Amino acid sequence: MSLSYEELAELDEPRLVTPIPGPNTQAVVERDERVTSPSLPRAYAFAPERGAGVMVEDVDGNVFLDLNSAIAVCSTGHAHPLVTEAITRQAGKLLHYSASDFYLPIYSELCSRIDDIAPMTNTRTFLANSGTEAVEAALKLARNHTGRQYALAFFGSFHGRSYGSVTLGASKAVYRAGFGPMLPSVVHAPYADCLYSFSDLEHPDSPGYIEEVIFKRLIKPSELACIVVEPVLGEGGYVVPPRRWMEMLKSMCDEHGILLVADEVQSGMGRTGKMWAIEHFDIEPDIILSGKGIASGMPLGAMTARSELMTWPKGSHGSTYGGNPVSCAAALATIDLIEGELQVNAAKIGELLKDGLLHMAARHDFITEVRGLGLMLGVDFSSVQIADAVEKAAFERGALLLQAGERAIRMSPPLVINERQADAGLRIFDQACAAVTAAA
Ligand SMILES: Cc1ncc(COP(=O)(O)O)c(C=O)c1O
């Protein structure tokens, strides 16, 4: 018999009722592979039907523990009642009116709410439909405001798949292959002084690299409009940079009038135990970008900048759907929940999960590092084959995980996860590692 929403949300662990993947999933996969774009990078055969909190049921009635949050998106858990209520209420009133051309009240209400929580004071916000659009908006604003054309980003980073953001990203060559030429005037430097995603290559310290290589040999700092950085590397492997590195970036930006853009599409919205990951470094960016977790699954991105930077003229940027009222309603409810208790829960359960993973690392030799902040945790393995095998073994046992970087698995559960569900996640992760050892 089908579980109610509450019953599903309260489950502590997976319930598998068919072999994985089940027959209905296989049928979905078979149709999908005939009609969808082959560019989509599917991880494994999971076909979700409904979700409640941390639990997701597939089309065969198997219940999984979602340690991905649908890739760091469903921050408040699947279909949080307060979020779905806000969405339903708004959908019953007004589905759409373009905020680019008219004064949509809920659009400015959300911008004002983001101003309240932003890590810098006195901001304005542009709302978009996705993370990549927020990145594009930041690039355009930085060039337009500074009158400079160059942007600097980091190896290992991911900023999205539209042309500006894919040019900024440098995590995997496949994202760029066959799509050139990329946007001109974008340069890259090593991310911090640690390049987990580049195996064990010796490399120069990154601030030194920016001064010695980029500023001396490629472009003058006075030509650089912005430095775009993920305060915790997301797709690139959940890497937390050293504090002094972030501080050096900030002082470099201040010295040369370069705008510091924090891409918090993945790391923001309470995921690291603070509203923004950059708050762990006590640094104020000039522009902050959000997406993913901001609206619990509704499409929304935000580019928030210090007010005095928003000098671009009327008509220079806009969007038909960006900041549509239903996504705004979801975001307002999401922010209330995150501010209320979820960011605290993210810090608390994040500690518990990290401790458990560190203990596990002592038992499984192939775990080479456990890192992260709050509920943004990365587990590095000795090879990508092992990371692959652990991801698959966890899936077969009912836990949804996803790889990141060269050979890591990321753990980014919904911020509503409780201790019992975290324990179940650890237990399954441990069993998956043991099964991979046994198979080897
Ligand atoms: C840090 C970061 N920036 C930007 C993006 C792009 O967001 P979207 O897929 O919504 O365009 C992502 C997506 O994974 C991301 O992790």
What does this structure look like?
It is a single chain. Helix 4 packs antiparallel against helix 10 (325-363), helix 5 packs parallel to helix 10 (325-363) and helix 10 packs across helix 12 (419-439). Strand 7, helix 9 (243-256) and strand 8 (259-263) form a beta-alpha-beta unit. The relative contact order is 0.16. The model is unreliable at 195-204 (pLDDT under 50). The protein has 440 residues and is α/β, with parallel strands linked by helices. The protein is globular. The protein has helices at 5-10, 23-35, 69-72, 81-93, 105-117, 131-146, 163-168, 206-218, 243-256, 325-363, 384-396, 419-439, and strands spanning 48-52, 55-58, 63-66, 123-128, 150-154, 186-189, 224-229, 259-263, 287-290, 301-306, 367-373, 376-381, 399-400, 402-404, 408-411. The protein folds into two domains: 5-79 and 342-439, Aspartate Aminotransferase, domain 1, CATH 3.90.1150.10; 82-337, Aspartate Aminotransferase, domain 2, CATH 3.40.640.10. A seven-stranded mixed sheet has the order 4-10-9-8-7-5-6, with helices on both faces. Strands 1-2-3-13 form a four-stranded mixed sheet. A four-stranded antiparallel sheet has the order 11-12-15-14, with helices on one face. Pyridoxal-5'-phosphate binds at residues 130-132, 135, 158-160, 230, 234-235, 263, 265-266, 291.
